[in-house]
Amino acid sequence: MESQIRHRLVLIPPPFQGHITPMLQLATILHSKGFSITIAHTHFNSPDPSNYPNFNFIPFFDALSNTQISSKNFIDITSTLNTKCVSSLKELLIHEITKLTHEKIVCIIYDGLLYFIDSLAKELKLPSIVFRTTSATNLLTYHACAELQSKGYLPLQDSKSCDLVPELNLLRFKDLPIFNSTNPDDFLQNITKTLSITPLGVSLEDSSLNQLQHLYKISLFPIGPLHMIANDPNNNSNKTLQESHNCISWLNNQARNSVLYVSLGSIASWEEKELTEVAGGLSNSRQKFLWVIRPETVNDVSAWSESLSEDVKEGMAARGCVVKWAPQNEVLAHEAVGGFWSHCGWNSTLESLCEGVPIICQPYFGDQRVNARLLSHVWKVGLEWCNVIEKDEIERVVRRLMVDQEGEEMRQRAMKLKHVIGQAVTGSSSDSLNGLVKCILSVNI
Ligand code: UDP
User: Fold this and answer.
1) Coiled coil: which residue ranges (predicted)?
2) 326 CB under 6 A from ligand 1?
């Protein structure tokens, strides 16, 4: 960097793993471009500073109650952060600005969920950029939701409708990320911001990106997949859950493409009754599986395991490996893994695509249904199924992906997409990153 004064960026993630991880990846990438990095974060779910000795971590008061924290209610937590953190973050940022001597905060990069930061940055006269941890296609659905709202169609009469949403190509009404109880204004709040960074499945979303730019005239910097560029194993680590590396030794002893990796990310989970059905379905499928069961999924895992029928216990012992938290990127990159049963969070979706692993889609909420639709009907590397958590259905869908010709064809298509994504990392994504750096520097000259 030419200037004597060093340029510092403040990055602000919300306290969700699927948002913290890509923000830290972005920070790692921008640090490699010469910026100093500050991460302003909530106390709840704070990242582990010891993994990032080069970054400055500053916590702000998040006003979250213990009940909110234990409920893990995404909407409720997001809403509290947007309404109750303005003054604590403002105080913190003012303190940071005044204490810097040989550095200048040149830009705030905040997650799109924390839209209150837009006006705060303006008040502090700091340039800001929105970081979106979701697909361009999902961003387009916000526009569709606004249209539906203006025509009086929200809340939807039939949220399970399979009719296609006008102008959203293959998306159906049931794929829309609408929380019926929530005013979609919240989601639309800062969609029209001029500067956005999005960790896209680059090249796979050109059409949605073009549509977004056409609709909103925004400058987008599609950079990604971020984990491939940042290439830092710590970015994915979870402070509260120890990653199990034993599962890698277990994978080392399995045949190529023989293992189904099963994980619902950091928030979604099965109820205990469903967990029993999943165990039955996985066991009866007679396929090898690596299964992430986060501790909060079930009150007492050993009691639950004991309660399983003898044949399911046997199947689990013979063909399964169960962990609390997996080194997911390493798992997906392992040659033994031939399929992923996923909730289709955007990070998991991209991580799977990057390794050429096809997906059994079990979306829960938000953008997951959009991602599932992209995987199954646009890229054709995901299986849409009835989503009924019942052991016979599960056995069928697992065999469709792991044994049948249908699954084999998906694996081949997924390998082709992996190649396309790899090329984009060094091509369009790299250009976009250089454009972003130039843009940040130019607004500060
Ligand atoms: N993850 C992981 N180990 C696990 C489960 C999840 O490292 O056992 C990571 C995964 O690699 C991904 C993130 O947690 O980066 C989950 O993000 P995603 O957007 O897929 O879903 P969310 O948790 O936000 O619903």
Assistant:
1) none
2) yes
